[in-house]
Amino acid sequence: MIASTIQPLLASGALQFAFEKATTEGKITISVLAALSLFSWTIILTKFRQLRTARKWAKKFFTAYSSSRDPLDIKNKGEDFEGAPVYQLYIRGADELAFHLQKNPKLVKGEKRISTAAFEAVKVTLEQAAATEAMALEKGMIVLSTAVAGGPFIGLLGTVWGVMETFAGIARANSASLTAMAPGVAGALIATVVGLLVAIPAMFAYNFMVTTIRSITQELDGFASVYATQIDHAYVENRNLEEKIADAFIRFEERRSAPKGYPVSDDVLHCPD
Question: N or C: at which end does the chain have fewer Cβ atoms within 10 angstroms?
Answer without folding.
Answer: N
